[in-house]
Amino acid sequence: MSYLLKLEELAELLLGIYLFTLLDYSWWIFPALILLPDIGMVGYLFNLKTGAWLYNLFHHKAIAITCYFIGLWLAMPVLKLVGIIIFSHAALDRIFGYGLKYSDSFKHTHLGWLGNKTSVHE
Question: How far apart are CA 11 and CA 89, in angstroms?
Fold first, then answer.
């Protein structure tokens, strides 16, 4: 993935951290929950299709943004927190090249193939 795209993901991660500071939670909650969206990988215990679907559900930024704004609209801080954690986690993953998954292989992502130096965005 190109340096410019990694910088964009870093900016999104920093935005997530900033939005978290606007919530009334202890600082340690953010690092404690940041890896929680990886629970979506449990779907790979069943098969590739279920794994990709569940992984993408827990790593999709549109879902994160939707959760955040519904939490904002309903004045539900916990829903805003869910949105921020998913958004921040997805940005962090993408800094390291982990994108949304295709159902043919865990290593096949919308950013290219994991471990392949000639990914889509190089």
Answer: 13
Q: How far apart are CA 102 and CA 15, in angstroms?
A: 27
- Residues 23-41 have a mean pLDDT of 97
pLDDT at 49 over 90: yes
User: Rounded to an integer, what is the distance from CA 3 to the centroid of its chain?
Assistant: 19
Per the CB < 8 A criterion, the answer to whether 86 and 33 are in contact is no
16 near 92, Cβ under 8 Å?
no
Q: Say which residue the tokens 């606007």 belong to.
A: 22
**What is the spatial distance between Cα 31 and Cα 33, in angstroms, rounded to a whole number?**
5
**Side-chain half-sphere exposure of 16, counting CA atoms within 13 A:** 25
Helix 3-21, helix 77-95: angle, nearest 10:
160
